[in-house]
Specification:
With about 300 residues, the protein is of the alpha/beta class. About 35% of the residues lie in helices and about 20% in strands.
């Protein structure tokens, strides 16, 4: 297996967005789950903003059927913009235009939903032999905690691939990919990943380090994905491909590193966590926070006690 230069600048991001969002039915029957609002922006915009802030100017969104709203959101809305301009509503006009200028957006359909590994694989032609980031739309990372920038820094220094890790309660590790790690001397937050297991049973998990939805991948992952058999759930698992990469020599694109994240993360893939994310972000907003926090205190202190 031959590979390209692992130290090429990371400028491309892949955002898998082909899921059906069945946990949010019936809301997602006709609306992509990525377009569900988190306060007043769709969840997917937070993800694209994060990629843009990390210097990733070229973003490929992997979509599926009934996902046209994603493309429309990151495109110009001339009639709406003209209406807002005539009304002199500069604030709303600015917010409507924000999503258009974040990055160069591209789209490809996944076709059959064969898992995250397959979604990444369909991006091979667009990535064109460069290291690239993968951002999952269910994980929102607070912009005050720049995880992705740190992961890109580690990839540029150490090569290989980089996964984001977070310590979780051992009872919750079965919900995640799980990493076995060892120190590598690069920093207190950086580890060498020796093994990966997709959603292990609690008693079989090699650690309580969960893999969360941010990756910076060496392009060698594509050749591995092509040979990766369906795993848990009958899907092609990215975790399984990364497990193989971890065993390969560095000159073949091997080695996997983990960056431990201890910042603020909002999970919008679960209904209860989605609601908590909205409350947390609304409370911190300068324009909404004071009034909302006041109402929330009263609601918790009086109505919830009834």
């Amino acid at each position: 297996m031959t590979t390209t230069n692992t130290r090429m600048p990371v400028t491309k991001a892949v955002v898998p967005a082909a899921g059906l969002g069945t946990r949010f039915l019936p809301a997602t029957k006709a609306t992509p789950k990525e377009m569900l609002p988190v306060v007043d922006k769709p969840a997917i915009q937070y993800v694209v903003e994060e990629a843009s802030a990390a210097g990733l100017s070229d973003i490929l969104m992997v979509t599926g059927r009934n996902k046209r709203a994603l493309e429309d959101h990151f495109d110009r809305a001339y009639e709406l913009e003209e209406l807002l301009a005539r009304k002199g509503d500069e604030d709303k006009l600015r917010r409507v235009r924000e999503s258009v200028s974040l990055a160069n957006m591209h789209y490809v359909r996944q076709g059959d939903p064969k898992g995250l590994g397959h979604a990444v694989l369909v991006a091979e032609q667009h990535v064109a032999g460069q290291p690239f980031a993968v951002l999952l739309g269910d994980d929102l990372i607070d912009p005050r905690d720049p995880l992705l920038a740190r992961m890109i820094e580690v990839q540029q220094e150490l090569g290989g691939s980089v996964v984001a890790l977070m310590e979780v309660d051992p009872a919750q590790i079965h919900l995640y990919g799980c990493a076995a790690v060892e120190a590598n001397g690069f920093g207190d937050d950086v580890f060498h990943v020796t093994d990966l297991v997709e959603k292990p049973e609690t008693t079989e998990a090699p650690s309580n380090y969960a893999v969360i939805g941010r990756y910076v991948l060496h392009p060698a992952v594509f050749e591995v994905l092509k040979k990766t058999e369906p795993g848990r759930g009958g899907e092609i698992q990215l975790t399984d491909a990364l497990r193989t990469l971890a065993t390969l020599p560095e000159e073949e694109g091997g080695k996997v590193h983990g960056v431990l994240f201890t910042g603020r993360r909002y999970d919008t893939g679960d209904r209860a966590d989605y609601l908590r994310a909205i409350v947390r972000l609304a409370c911190e907003r300068e324009d909404l926070g004071p009034e909302f926090r006041s109402w929330l205190r009263g609601f918790v202190g009086t109505e919830m006690q009834a």
